[in-house]
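Below is a filled-in request sheet from our internal design queue. Each sheet records the structural input a requester submitted and the sequence that came back. We keep these sheets so that new team members can see what a complete request looks like end to end.

REQUESTER: design group, bay 2
PRIORITY: normal
MODE: inverse folding
CHAIN LENGTH: 132
BACKBONE (tokenized):
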């Protein structure tokens, strides 16, 4: 499948931008979120994965400008809304998170929180396959 991607200029704080719409039998091969900021550092950068009706939220507090981040499993016992993202290269916990983001119905979104909105791109790319 071609990558699902978004490049959102001037993202509104707290708005979840869809990257991969609900897709049946999706296997996620990779997710990367990144943004470029100039004056005020945003926090957090968030990727939202809805898999078979369950929502998992992955956050990177104080993301570094122009750095790519991928979802990781913080701790399998932590709440689904309290997972983390890590910078590349990926760790084992990040690769395991991709398995968590695969299912009969998968959708991926990206969001950022701003203190002051800036003219900056918010980018997210999802590599995926569909099982037939």
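RETURNED SEQUENCE:
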């Amino acid at each position: 499948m071609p990558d699902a991607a978004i490049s959102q200029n001037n993202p509104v704080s707290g708005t979840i931008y869809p990257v991969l719409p609900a897709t049946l039998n999706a296997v996620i091969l990779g997710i990367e979120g990144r943004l470029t900021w100039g004056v005020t550092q945003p926090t957090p950068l968030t990727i939202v994965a809805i898999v078979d009706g369950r929502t998992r939220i992955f956050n990177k507090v104080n993301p570094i400008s122009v750095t790519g981040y991928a979802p990781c499993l913080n701790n399998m016992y932590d709440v689904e809304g309290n997972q983390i993202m890590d910078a590349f290269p990926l760790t084992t916990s990040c690769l395991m998170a991709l398995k968590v983001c695969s299912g009969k119905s998968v959708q991926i979104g990206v969001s950022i929180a701003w203190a002051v909105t800036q003219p900056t791109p918010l980018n997210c790319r999802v590599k995926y396959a569909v099982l037939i």
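SHEET NOTES:
- The chain has one domain: 4-130.
- The chain has a mean pLDDT of 87.
FILED BY: M.R.
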